[in-house]
Design brief:
The structure holds two protein chains of two kinds. By secondary structure, chain A is mainly α. Chain A has 22 helices and four strands. The chains are: A mainly alpha, B alpha+beta.
Chain lengths: 527, 165
């Protein structure tokens, strides 16, 4: 393509002063072996995945508040309130998994082809450290949404680190996990995730790419053909491969929501933590060893595997041979792949379905949910009394005293099912309502309304607070929907002490209908 | 010796490389820009807040009423003290001004000597009905929506006054 003289002169001017064009040309026109091709696209794909993670990570950092008090809500804000927020978070979340896959594929390709052989040992070592850095990104990023999954996953991680012989307690101290996972752990994971790891990653990528350039792309055995240039043919192949994974990632981010569970709850004894899918094989390995042997599965075996990976170029020092003849290498990959798949499948099988928790992605409270339980219960009285027959949509005139209203209730309906205290509650609620507020309140769904009536009848407000109403003798009930699931709530009503040892709450053996109702209501209490 | 690429193939390669790279950059940059620049989803609009009693106000004498209102700050819902300069003009006619100067947001005050609102920062002056009398302020004082329920003053959300040239 001819370049206009004017553009040419500007480019020359810049190149004279910075060497930029020459540098780009040198980079793109690097000579690569004739045998290069589709099998070498994975390195570029890995670099691209990292760039997507860096870009989306920075975008997330513009709206993410890195403290345990705010992290969860800011992630919800990004996901639910910001235009494009769910997409950006989706790209970052699924991009992390994608990056792991691409990095492992890259490594597998180099391993099978024997690309790590002399003089490329250092390139391989840098690649191994890059793999570990990628895993460290996944491990530290897992904590940052601060939901139950993040919290409990990290509890296990820090405990495993602590079980390491000799260095365990120092590792745990470094992770800030000596007194359990809390603000210190959180802040350190964040510092790792956004400062140390990105800087290390960029430095290591620099070293890795420099070494690839220094030694040249590894040719396959017997390649003596004339060299070709990296640009444009290989760049074309890289771009197509990158485009394929990017399309996959983009579609995934659009259709599959990045999970967000209940807010991290250190007192939730019912939560069964599971690591991210790419760590499930380690989780399952750990289960194969029990008692004093546990440290073998938790620490020793994984570290031996890492050591073996580092030693690969020093163990296999033979000449380069055709990939198809590298039966040992292929065998190792197949065995490792089978072992990985088997362990992962076993771990997935042992994961209860109920743990797939997306409570954090539920939309915000409706106006009626912000009302006091007594007000929501009054909606039930309103409906029982058939008030809607005359006052459709909450059309009420508030120019009466509550005594007048009660008299009106008794006179206006033929059958009064309500007790005097319920009539009084109905009067007290609607006497201060303007039509808009009444209409909002009356939009409450019947199951929750019945639950609020059970709540009132059982006087839950004597020990609990909802929306600031009631007494905080027991735990505040706002946020319970994020902390507890349906089964937990039912079991807790039946036998509170079993799930919350030391609790002073009496047992509530509600009939099935009332139990359904109150649980439905509690799940609608805003967070 | 270096292999040369056939010119037609080369053009094809370049088209694909630039085309797909551009597409991917756009697929990241456009959502990124939307994410940073679009305002967050609006949650429920501001409620009416009771700020005081109209019978306490003197005619033609602005007073600063302090009231609590709940405001959304990003992912946080804050309940905070806010104030309004409320002016009663003959009986039931009232106006409530937002307490920031429309120039650069300083807090202004009522000067009973000159019967004007004065901003201490850049000496903007406003009349009792919020109009700019002098100084750099670009538009009249912003007003709250306001209504009376009996004698109670209810304050709603701020409506920005148009710029008057």
């Amino acid at each position: 393509m001819p370049i206009p003289a004017r553009v040419r002169s500007i480019v020359d001017w810049i190149d004279h002063r910075t060497g930029l064009e020459t540098a780009i040309r040198d980079f793109l026109y690097e000579e690569i072996p004739e045998s290069s091709g589709w099998h070498q696209v994975f390195g570029s794909m890995a670099l691209f995945s990292f760039m997507v993670q860096a870009f989306t990570g920075i975008l997330l950092a513009f709206n993410y508040a890195p403290t345990p008090g705010d992290a969860y809500n800011s992630v919800r804000y990004i996901t639910l309130d910001l235009t494009g927020g769910a997409l950006v978070r989706g790209l970052h979340h699924w991009g992390a998994s994608l990056m792991i896959i691409v990095v492992v594929l890259h490594m597998t390709q180099v391993f099978i082809s024997g690309g790590y052989k002399k003089p490329r040992e250092a390139t391989w070592l840098a690649g191994c450290v890059l793999l570990l850095t990628t895993f460290a990104f996944g491990l530290t990023g897992y904590l940052l949404p601060w939901d139950n999954r993040a919290y409990w996953g990290t509890v296990v991680t820090t405990q495993i680190a602590a079980s390491a012989p000799l260095v365990g307690q120092y590792m745990q101290r470094l992770m800030g996990g000596s007194d359990g996972v809390g603000v210190v752990t959180f802040t350190r994971f964040y510092a790792m995730h956004v400062m140390i790891l990105p800087l290390s990653m960029i430095a290591l990528i620099g070293i890795h790419v420099y070494l690839v350039r220094k030694h040249g792309v590894a040719p396959v055995a017997g390649d003596v053909g004339p060299k070709k240039r990296f640009f444009p043919e290989q760049v074309f192949k890289d771009t197509l491969a990158i485009f394929a994974v990017f399309t996959l990632l983009f579609v995934l981010a659009l259709v599959a929501r990045a999970p967000l569970g209940r807010l991290a709850d250190p007192t939730d004894t019912s939560y069964i933590p599971r690591p991210e899918w790419y760590f499930l094989f380690l989780f399952q390995t750990l289960k194969l060893f029990e008692g004093p042997l546990e440290v073998v599965g938790a620490v020793i075996l994984p570290n031996l595997a890492i050591l073996a990976l580092f030693l690969v170029p020093f163990i296999d020092r033979g000449r380069m041979i055709k990939t198809a003849q590298r039966t040992v290498a292929i065998g190792v990959v197949v065995l490792a792949g089978l072992a990985w798949a088997g362990l992962t499948a076993a771990a997935v099988r042992s994961t209860p379905k109920a743990m797939e928790d997306t409570a954090g992605l539920e939309p915000d409270a409706e106006p009626w949910q912000l009302a006091a339980p007594s007000e929501i219960a009054a909606v039930g009285y309103f409906r029982m009394q058939n008030c809607g027959k005359c006052h459709a949509g909450g059309k009420v005139t508030a120019h009466k005293t509550s005594e007048e209203l009660i008299a009106h209730f008794k006179q206006a309906t033929t059958v009064t099912q309500l007790s005097d205290s319920q009539l009084k509650a109905l009067a007290n609620v609607f006497i201060k309502m303007n039509p808009n507020a009444a209409a909002a309140l009356l939009s409450a769904p019947q199951p929750a309304v019945e639950g609020a009536m059970v709540y009132e009848k059982s006087h839950c407000g004597i020990c609990h607070q909802v929306n600031g109403v009631g007494v905080k003798l027991g735990p505040e009930l706002n946020g319970i929907a994020l902390r507890r699931n349906r089964d937990w709530l039912i079991q807790h009503f039946l036998d509170p002490q079993r799930l919350s040892p030391g609790s002073t709450m009496p047992r509530y053996r509600f009939n099935p209908k009332d139990m359904e109702a109150i649980v439905a209501y509690l799940q609608k209490v805003p967070n | 010796m270096i292999q040369q690429t056939n010119p037609n193939r080369r053009t094809f390669y370049l088209t694909v490389i630039y085309g797909l790279s551009g597409l991917m950059s756009a697929a990241l940059a456009i959502p990124g820009a939307v994410y940073l620049l679009f305002p967050p989803r609006v949650k429920k609009s501001g409620d009416w807040v009771e700020a005081g009693d109209v019978s306490q106000l003197k005619d033609q004498e602005p007073s600063e009423l302090v009231f609590k209102r709940t405001r959304l700050d990003g992912w946080r819902s804050l309940t905070e003290k806010t104030s309004a300069w409320v002016v009663k003009e003959g009986g039931q006619q009232i106006a409530a001004f937002a307490p920031q100067c429309t120039h650069l947001g300083c807090a202004y005050h009522w000067d009973s000597g000159s019967k004007n609102f004065l901003c201490p920062c850049h000496t903007s002056a406003f009349s009792m009905d919020g109009k700019v009398l002098s100084g750099p302020a670009p538009r009249p004082l912003d007003q709250y929506e306001v209504k009376l329920q009996g004698t109670k003053i209810l304050i709603g959300s701020i409506k920005k006054a148009p710029v008057v040239s």
